[in-house]
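Lecture notes, unit on protein representations.

Consider one protein chain, 243 amino acids long.
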Amino acid sequence: MEPLIEVRGLRFRYDDGTLALDGVDFQLFPGETVALFGRNGSGKTTFVHHLNGLLAGEGFVSVCGLQVEKRNLPAVRRKIGLVFQDSDEQLFMPTVIEDVAFGPLNRGQDTTAAMETASQALRDVGLEALAGRAPYHLSAGEKKRVALAGILAMEPEILVLDEPTTFLDPPAQRDLAALLRRLPQAKLVVTHDARFARALARRAVFFEKGRIVADGPIDEIVDRFQWVPGTTSGEAAGPQPAG
């Protein structure tokens, strides 16, 4: 089986000299959901920003058989959808339906087709009834679902979610986990919340100082690094291996 994402030897240094990624190797296969764990500053978000070309380092990165480089970025960004930690960064149109239709319109669909695509995406996340609402009137959980609908409207093969439980109360977290389990796309979930990750993923990787230092079944990774279930503080109890 060919991987949807393949990364080999990825290195990246910020302009201030900080080495954020130091030789990352990774593969994601169809149907997988993988949790990305690690302390703040360990490289998780820097890593996922390389997958759609928001950042460009040294090494090899491919998505759905396309090397992530300038000439392929439009095609790559149709394959992979990134849901930001703060939904307000993705919601900017006057109404929910306009926000979700923005991507399809810019992809070339006419207004009627784009609105139908957006309506279907809102049905997929259970928010069609809010189509005419202003995004800033929504709850944090509703905003997260609208942001996700905007990504789904672009029909990606891969979803990348950066700290998806930020600002969500426990019921909204459970609702989001249930929704994500229903979606067929392969997923990468950057999170500090082991309970949420366990509800979605069977596999996890652990980032430390810009490297993936562990990759395996999620329960083993959580136990090895003594990750506190349900924590959202940005810190693990580890990272010393248990035992």
